[in-house]
Structures are given as structure tokens and as C-alpha cells.
Amino acid sequence: MQYPPRLTLYPLIGLNAVVKRATNPAFHRISGVIVDDTHNMLTLSDGLRNRSVPKTSSLFELSLPSGETVDIDGQALLGHPAERLRRAKKLRW
């Protein structure tokens, strides 16, 4: 499923996520709640521990508050939410 284009503009902290694909097999199928969104990493917490997953080489399945699940490539999530917003604003002008 295609993700809504504006999804990358919002903070992802608090959403449930599953790593559907990763170049490193150790990251494959990690799931949890996003607790931190840095420039190059998403930190997922499963309640027991936090795992940092690189954005560049991963495909994430995010569960939105509406109950919908979307697949999103980590490349589209690079940068902090504020940087992603600035980048989108530049594209429109």
C-alpha cells in the first residue's frame, strides 16, 4: 500500500512499527512503539528494550491511529520531522 505523502511531515513517535525488510537480517521483523526519531535512526521499544534501526536500509510498516497500516521506505523518513517539513516546503515553492 502506498503511504499518504503527508505522512512523512508528521512526528512518528508513538506509532507502532514493524521492520518488514532490512539489509541486516538482525533487524528483520523487529516491532514496537517508536520512542525516538533521529536523523538516521528510529528507536523501537517492545516494552523490554529499545532497539535502534537505521532508516536508510529498511522498510517499515506503520500502524496509524485510524487503524490503517502503511508501508513506508526509510529513505522517505530521513531527517528529523522539522527537516522533512522544511524539505517539503522548499519543493512546493
Summarize the structure in short.
The chain has one helix spanning 81-92; strands at residues 16-22, 31-37, 41-45, 50-54, 58-63, 69-73.
Characterization of this structure:
By secondary structure, the protein is mainly beta. It has one domain (11-92): SH3 type barrels. The protein is 13% helix and 38% strand. It has one helix and six strands, in the order E-E-E-E-E-E-H. A six-stranded antiparallel β-sheet has the order 4-3-2-1-5-6, with no helix packed on it. A hairpin with a 5-residue loop joins strand 5 (58-63) and strand 6 (69-73). It starts with 15 loop residues before the first strand and ends with a helix. 13% of the residues are buried. The mean pLDDT is 85.
- CATH fold call: SH3 type barrels
Outline: globular
| Unreliably modeled segments | none
Q: How large, in whole angstroms, is the Cα Rg?
A: 13 Å
In percent terms, what proportion of residues is strand?
A: 35-45%
Mean pLDDT: 85
Task: Give me some keywords for this one.
single chain; SH3 type barrels; 6-stranded antiparallel beta sheet; 93 residues; 38% strand; mainly beta; 6 strands
What does the secondary structure layout of this molecule look like, with pairings?
Layout: E1 16-22, E2 31-37, E3 41-45, E4 50-54, E5 58-63, E6 69-73, H1 81-92
